[in-house]
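Hello forum,

I keep getting stuck at the same step: I have a sequence, I want structure tokens, and every attempt I make locally crashes halfway through. Rather than fight my setup again tonight, could one of you with a working pipeline run this one for me? It's a single chain of 529 residues.
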Amino acid sequence: MEWLAGRIMLLSGARRGLVAFVAGLIAVFALPPFGIFAAPFLSFPILVWLIDGASGNPDRGPIRRSFPAFWIGWCFGFGYFLGGLWWLGNALLVEADDFAWAVPLAVIGVPAFLAFFYACAAALARILWSDGLGRIAALAFAFGLFEWLRSFVLTGFPWNAIGYAAMPVPLMMQSAAVVGLAGINMLAVFVFAAPALMGTRKGLRAGLGLAVLLVAAHFGYGFYRLEQPLPPPADPALTVRLVQPLIDQSKKIDDNERMTIFEEHLALTQAAPADGGKRPDIIVWPETAVPFILTENPDALLRISDVLQDGQLLIAGAVRAEATGTGQPPRYYNSIYVIDDRGQIVGASDKVHLVPFGEYLPLENLLSAAGIDTVAMPGGFSAAATRTLLTLPGGKTLYPLICYEAIFPREIGTDALRADVLLNLTNDAWFGNTPGPYQHFQQARLRAVETGLPLIRDANTGISAVVNGRGEIVTGLQLGTKGFVDTLLPGKFVLLISLEAQERNTILIGCLLFGLAVISRASFILREN
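Reply #2:
Ran it on my machine without issues. Output:
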């Protein structure tokens, strides 16, 4: 191991960047659909050894001396994000005539931009670098800090945060209910990077001992939480039907297919329960399932009322139009409607966090003048000012998350404590049969673990599922499957640690890692002098 570490430290020029890039690519295999937990244990030690050898000109200041580490971090991040997000280009090929020119920007440009967060993390870690356990703490703190910044800078895009690599299955997800995703990000990097100590031997016993202790706690808490009895089903007992229509995205944007699409949803809605089971109380359709403006189509609402039986409710994704004044075009919202058996809209909630370039255009005046438009909706959507919880006629309260809102822990505020269920409607048809839908589903499951709330997730092409408050799949439909599935709505878990306490625990972990890095750095400087 020392021989390998020495060889990697002494790499120079393009070979250093290439090895960092490959190390980032390897880390991708820890993410869905692969879930190879061992992959980052190879990637992060390589990153540590590369930063060990990334010493800048000693005559320069600490920031300029950290530039070689910045470059290494960028190459690592570019490999990680390129390998994890290449499928973004698939969305632009749905309307290739209009958007194929932007494929390189999505496939290469987005990873290149996101890599700057890891570049800054490596540079900051290098400033705090020492020769033992402290440098592992410095790397963990820096990655945790910049993953946190990635969750909200420029509206945020925390997709594939490094902590997800440590949570491939429910047994390994439960720690998120204690420290949240931000805390897992830091702890995961510390554990993944700890084997690098075998290459230098300094701090080896303490570092590996602490890493083993953290892994044991991670698994131990998972066993403990999974052994707890499941809460009883929701009271009153409600049967939920997930409708997964498997509508190709090219068909969804074809105006001539609208009624066919609508009838396909209705046919799955009124299908008899499998094995003669209880008819569903709630039917769920995916994001933008309704192919026209419902409030402008009373016949469509009448058709829905014909299909729904007495007491049934339909929860459906739809586009909502709002008049803005005489002579002005309406505003459009990506919304969720609750519709009763009389065809009346009894609840609605609009999307708050829109997808840049997909649902709205940043720098709209400048880019629209250049002929650039949004991908998902010509002219774009408007964002709701606040999130509106959906209260069903029976009294159940749903916390709505539309599409990629489910990847943001920050989107789930304390008002989620008033909810009984998380609701995530999405249309992952844009991404086809790629890792994208699998990654999206894993991230949505973590929101259930963090809150203890069951999750109803309905996707046009999959993955649709009902997930309990421990992240376990109660039932669901695989990617690329057409059909429906009925199940009882699970009850919610009582969180042992509140959402606010999860944030405090994360801050405490960050402070401890930062303190360890600073103390180790100070000791290193004293020894050098």
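DSSP finds 17 helices and twelve strands in the chain. If your local run keeps crashing, start a new thread with the error log.
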